[in-house]
């Protein structure tokens, strides 16, 4: 029996701690991208090797996000939150003092363990917050992922100019250390636990196909899409993925319950997440490059890293506004409607970038629309998934949704990189049509996400009937998260 809510830590204190953790993780996702050439020069390595600074973080976060979320469901979300924040702090410290690229890559892999902060945050909110506050809290926490990504692009340049790239890691280290100590003191332990053991075999299978897929996608542009290494990794992923699904289906104690993944709301929202991640993370990667392209190329604005970040500041502000407003809007129109609107607005913004990008004001308007779309859609996706699953499955369900969005981002960034660089000028810069075609593809992806979002069923009943040995799969009422 758990302590009454009024004897537990005030949920507002808990929320502040959770937001610091999510913000730190999201900053680490994006701050490194704009200054990768600086890190390459400082550590004396080459372009191909330094890309592993991004790949190691991506792969580690993708593997550990659902695993840490599931362990939290079983052994306690608060203690696993401390572990995830501790990993972020240790990895950031190691990255800040790294003197070689191998140490930096190892540090980024440790940081990726902190991806578990996201599903644990959603689970703790669902456990601890008053029912009427759950939707807005989840919306704000989810939007922080998009906001942090934008803030990382904005502050990376000024930080490096004023101090050094080491401070890209010192600041998150300080934030996560404070958050870890605060979590240990003030965040209450989970009242909900899932019985059973952690299925190590299926965890290894899931990790194997994710590593094979993400390494192939991330390094394909450098190794060559037709290279034996890339083809071999894709084949391995294609074989291991169905093996993992079969193993999870047959397991009496699965890491990821496939019956949960087959809930109509869950799988449709996950598909939206894949498509949405394809567009959002690609825009984080390629919009700064477009803005920094010298005007001699016939397009672009010749912005510095700092200037390009400031040009994207309205997008970041709009993401925050969208995330904060999402909770109240969801109570009025429903999270599904927000998701449809956010996905549609993403398509609108991407199509705008494809056809109208000659003036700074055009970029500002279009990216502001994108920022609002990201904030609304992130909040809506998280609320829909959390409301559709049992409380004991919150961590792994939201972890898989986050993970699928990350996989979509990795695929999108690789595809857009290939499209943008398919035609190069004599100077070695991409042609304007490369960026136009890339943004057009992202617009099409956004339109596809909108169509899928329209098909997302709204959870209204307290029981899901799912094919499988246990036909009755209980979930909390939809009004729990005000879907």
TrEMBL record:
<dbReference type="InterPro" id="IPR011701">
    <property type="entry name" value="MFS"/>
</dbReference>
<keyword id="KW-1133">Transmembrane helix</keyword>
<feature type="domain" description="Major facilitator superfamily (MFS) profile">
    <location>
        <begin position="14"/>
        <end position="464"/>
    </location>
</feature>
<dbReference type="Pfam" id="PF07690">
    <property type="entry name" value="MFS_1"/>
</dbReference>
<feature type="transmembrane region" description="Helical">
    <location>
        <begin position="165"/>
        <end position="186"/>
    </location>
</feature>
<feature type="transmembrane region" description="Helical">
    <location>
        <begin position="49"/>
        <end position="68"/>
    </location>
</feature>
<keyword id="KW-0813">Transport</keyword>
<feature type="transmembrane region" description="Helical">
    <location>
        <begin position="362"/>
        <end position="386"/>
    </location>
</feature>
<dbReference type="InterPro" id="IPR020846">
    <property type="entry name" value="MFS_dom"/>
</dbReference>
<feature type="transmembrane region" description="Helical">
    <location>
        <begin position="407"/>
        <end position="426"/>
    </location>
</feature>
<dbReference type="InterPro" id="IPR036259">
    <property type="entry name" value="MFS_trans_sf"/>
</dbReference>
<feature type="transmembrane region" description="Helical">
    <location>
        <begin position="105"/>
        <end position="125"/>
    </location>
</feature>
<feature type="transmembrane region" description="Helical">
    <location>
        <begin position="12"/>
        <end position="29"/>
    </location>
</feature>
<keyword id="KW-0812">Transmembrane</keyword>
<protein>
    <submittedName>
        <fullName>MFS transporter</fullName>
    </submittedName>
</protein>
<feature type="transmembrane region" description="Helical">
    <location>
        <begin position="438"/>
        <end position="459"/>
    </location>
</feature>
<feature type="transmembrane region" description="Helical">
    <location>
        <begin position="267"/>
        <end position="291"/>
    </location>
</feature>
<keyword id="KW-1003">Cell membrane</keyword>
<feature type="transmembrane region" description="Helical">
    <location>
        <begin position="198"/>
        <end position="218"/>
    </location>
</feature>
<feature type="transmembrane region" description="Helical">
    <location>
        <begin position="230"/>
        <end position="247"/>
    </location>
</feature>
<feature type="transmembrane region" description="Helical">
    <location>
        <begin position="311"/>
        <end position="331"/>
    </location>
</feature>
<feature type="transmembrane region" description="Helical">
    <location>
        <begin position="137"/>
        <end position="159"/>
    </location>
</feature>
<feature type="transmembrane region" description="Helical">
    <location>
        <begin position="80"/>
        <end position="99"/>
    </location>
</feature>
<keyword id="KW-0472">Membrane</keyword>
<feature type="transmembrane region" description="Helical">
    <location>
        <begin position="338"/>
        <end position="356"/>
    </location>
</feature>
